[in-house]
Amino acid sequence: MAVTLVNPSGLPEIPIYRQVSVATGAKLIHVAGQVAWDADGTTVGHGDLAAQVEQCYLNVGTALAGVGATFADVVKLTMHVVDWQPDRMPLVLDGISRAAAKLGVTPAAPASLFGIVALDVPEHLVEVEAVAVLD
Asked: What is the gyration radius of the CA atoms in the chain, in angstroms?
């Protein structure tokens, strides 16, 4: 496997991701920010952050599969959430959990979450991008 996820001693353990990823593969994959569009370009989950997070993760999974990768190959996830407030974290976690259950994986790569003002499509509440490495 090209990716090892680690929680080094001296850093807090975060339940939904690891602090460090070590990649030893030769093929670097960058997945563009995925929003809550289905395959037809229709927004999923209008006004529902959890549903949109779920769709974003499913879209990342589809993008990875399209190049022979899975969430096990992901070394970094970045999430941008419109009008972020910390009390919305349970919705984010719910969306991730629902996507993980559908995908049969636990996305645990190091992750960053950024609160932003808006995305390019007003009904989109979240965007998720990924970097992966393959052998």
From this structure: 14
